[in-house]
Design brief:
Elements: E1 4-7, E2 10-11, E3 14-15, H1 18-33, E4 37-43, H2 51-55, E5 60-65, H3 74-88, E6 92-96, H4 99-112, E7 116-120, E8 122-126, E9 129-136, E10 141-147, E11 152-156, E12 171-176, E13 204-208, H5 218-227, E14 232-236, H6 238-242, E15 263-267, H7 273-279, E16 284-289, E17 302-305, H8 308-322
Parallel strand pairs: 1-4, 1-6, 4-5, 5-12, 6-11, 7-11, 13-14, 13-15, 15-16, 16-17
Antiparallel strand pairs: 2-3, 8-9, 9-10
Helix pairs in contact: 3-4, 5-8
């Protein structure tokens, strides 16, 4: 029997939704290994929303408290997670491949002397060993790796592991962690204006490219995003970001953010390989482009060839009608 440690994320004392995906992935591993899922969240005190971890499959929810854990503290977090992993003898440690997870996972793996499988899109167990899958070569191929060492540290690509409710006891446990957050201190996190969704976490992403002609025309995409009732974020191609039309935080692509939303709408984006690498794992892709030979149509589930300045307003109007 091998237990799995799911490392959850909190911000401002509240559990982040991405943690539900982590618990779901950890539950899949634990079921195959015949063990339990222990969810670990680090914070300065009690973290709201941790009870949901039990609903998504955690047998135990552990809150590790330290005054230095109010904000993400790289050294302190890595030390606390590694110590818990060693003490519990876990066979696997599961994190999110979020901005925080991409920094934390390799630190934890280094402290444990364990292999790291990062940004994975699927995981399973074969012959008692963890098998992971991740996109390679800008998403053109899938790499399948069997990890025979234990423990193994894995980070899950956001928006790929759909949260599944598998209610467990969710026994709560709280422990104080000695020491401090380490040499690096995060003073604060600057949130997007007006509570705007991050493209890496939004279930729907509407992205624009040079086909919009000028930055002012991104208002068309912003209106389309609003029509989805707060579920959509506005993204952009690298060319648009390099031109200064949109902030770098909106960039989708190999040198920007990797997104896997339920719905991705590409407007005026030709579909260069750099951009496709960041969004081709979206569940449904809709492309709007006047060039019928644009590469984006090769990965799109639905394609509309035409003038985006005519199509997008009509699409926005219809979505508003559907949402009442």
């Amino acid at each position: 029997m091998s237990y799995v440690l799911a490392v959850l994320e909190q911000r401002d004392g509240s559990l982040r939704k991405i943690s539900h995906e982590v618990v779901t992935g950890a539950r899949r591993l634990a079921d195959a290994l015949g063990g339990e899922v222990h969810a670990l969240v680090l914070g300065a005190g009690a973290v709201s929303g941790t009870e949901a971890a039990g609903r998504f499959g955690a047998d135990k929810v552990i809150t590790a408290t330290n005054a230095g854990f109010a904000q993400y503290a790289p050294e302190g977090y890595a030390r606390a997670v590694a110590e818990r992993a060693k003490a519990g003898g876990y066979g696997a440690v599961v994190l999110a491949a979020s901005a925080q997870g991409k920094d934390l996972a390799p630190r934890v793996a280094a402290k444990l002397g364990a292999p790291l499988a990062a940004d994975i899109t699927d995981l399973a167990v074969e012959g008692g060993a963890v098998v992971v899958t991740r996109p390679v070569y800008a998403g053109k191929a899938l790499l399948k790796v069997k990890v025979t060492a234990a423990p193994v540290v894995v980070s899950l690509r956001p928006n790929v592991f759909t949260p599944v409710e598998r209610p467990k006891a969710g026994v709560a446990e709280s422990n104080a962690v000695a020491g401090d957050g380490g040499r690096v201190v995060v003073r604060g996190i600057k949130a997007a204006a007006g509570g705007t969704l991050d493209v890496a976490e939004a279930p729907i992403v509407v992205s624009g490219g040079r086909g919009l002609k000028e930055p002012a025309n991104f208002k068309l995409l912003e209106e389309l995003a609003r029509a989805f009732g707060g579920k959509a974020a506005v993204g952009a191609s690298r060319a648009v970001v390099d031109a200064g039309w949109r902030p770098h935080g909106d960039q989708v692509g190999q040198t920007g953010k990797t997104v896997s939303p339920s719905l991705y709408i590409a407007v005026g984006i030709s579909g260069a390989i750099q951009h496709l690498a960041g969004m081709r794992t979206a569940k449904v892709i809709v492309a709007i482009n006047k060039d019928k030979d644009a590469p984006i149509f090769k990965v799109a589930d639905y394609g509309i060839v035409g003038d985006l300045f005519e199509i997008v307003p009509k699409l926005t109007e219809e979505i508003r009608k559907l949402n009442g």
